[in-house]
């Protein structure tokens, strides 16, 4: 079995001194006799893209669910900006500024782009119309939707009144990412964002991820697409058999070495 050096090096050694925006320490999660997580650590720093890779059953989904409130870890702790947090449901994580875009996207096809951006966060009109009649401020939501899309550099969605069911797969992904960016003040988590997308649409989604990073929003991306991981990630968390096998970077390791660590062909 080959041994690979997994010492991580980063630009300006930022991670050596900075406080992680999101951190997990010793997370344990079991499902009966099945161990989903076995003492997992994770650190996410401001203005970086952290990719999580691993074979099926490695614990990637369980880790993300624990970080975003969909699952409650049996042991360990989660810290946000250095403060310990306890997420009992996804709404708790969202309220703390952690937005997740799952592979299923969770968009409402019959609603327009603006309505999807504010899904579950609809803005009411001011005064009597909003407080008593509970009417939504469609004009205000559409204007903010245009601004959010413009700030993210999304030029393929010109008309925010278009129903999502009329959009391509890449455009729907852009809507879901824009929604996360609009409300994810701390962290944005993307689960397989380029799955089932063509080359051009995948490139557009990766460009969105870069924009989020450049705006200072840290991003966690879960992906099986190794070329995309090595193109976009600043650091790579390798998950194997419920544990963190290593944390590497595209500069310190090759794609082949990452796969070797992920599959156990190389020791971390």
Automatic annotation (TrEMBL):
It comes from the Bacteria. PANTHER family: CARBOHYDRATE TRANSPORT ATP-BINDING PROTEIN MG119-RELATED (PTHR43790), SUGAR ABC TRANSPORTER ATP-BINDING PROTEIN (PTHR43790:SF8). The keyword Hydrolase applies. Its EC number is 3.6.3.17. This is Monosaccharide-transporting ATPase. CDD domains: ABC_Carb_Monos_I. GO terms for molecular function: ATP binding; ATP hydrolysis activity. Pfam families: ABC_tran. Residues 22-266 form the ABC transporter domain.
């Amino acid at each position: 079995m080959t041994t690979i050096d997994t010492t991580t090096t980063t630009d300006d050694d930022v991670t050596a001194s900075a406080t992680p925006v999101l951190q997990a320490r010793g997370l344990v999660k079991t499902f009966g006799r099945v161990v989903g997580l076995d003492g997992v650590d994770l650190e996410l720093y401001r203005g970086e893209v952290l990719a999580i890779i691993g074979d099926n059953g490695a614990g990637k989904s369980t880790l993300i669910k624990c970080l975003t409130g969909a699952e409650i870890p049996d042991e360990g702790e989660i810290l946000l900006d250095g403060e310990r947090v306890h997420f009992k449901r996804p709404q708790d994580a969202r309220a703390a500024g952690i937005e997740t875009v799952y592979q299923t996207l969770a968009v409402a096809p019959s609603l327009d782009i603006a309505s999807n951006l504010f899904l579950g966060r609809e803005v009411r009109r001011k005064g009597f119309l909003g407080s008593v009649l509970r009417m939504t401020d469609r004009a205000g939501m559409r204007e903010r939707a245009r601004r959010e899309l413009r700030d993210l550099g999304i030029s393929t969605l010109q008309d925010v009144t278009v129903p999502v069911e009329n959009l391509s797969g890449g455009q729907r992904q852009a809507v879901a990412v824009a929604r996360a960016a609009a409300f994810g003040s701390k962290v944005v988590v993307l689960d397989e964002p380029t799955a089932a997308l063509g080359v051009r649409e995948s490139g557009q989604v990766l460009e969105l991820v870069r924009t989020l990073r450049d705006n200072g929003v840290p991003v966690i991306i879960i992906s099986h697409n190794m070329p995309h991981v090595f193109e976009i990630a600043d650091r790579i968390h390798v998950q194997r058999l419920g544990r963190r096998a290593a944390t590497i970077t595209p500069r310190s390791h090759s794609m082949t070495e990452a796969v070797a660590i992920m599959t156990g062909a190389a020791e971390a």
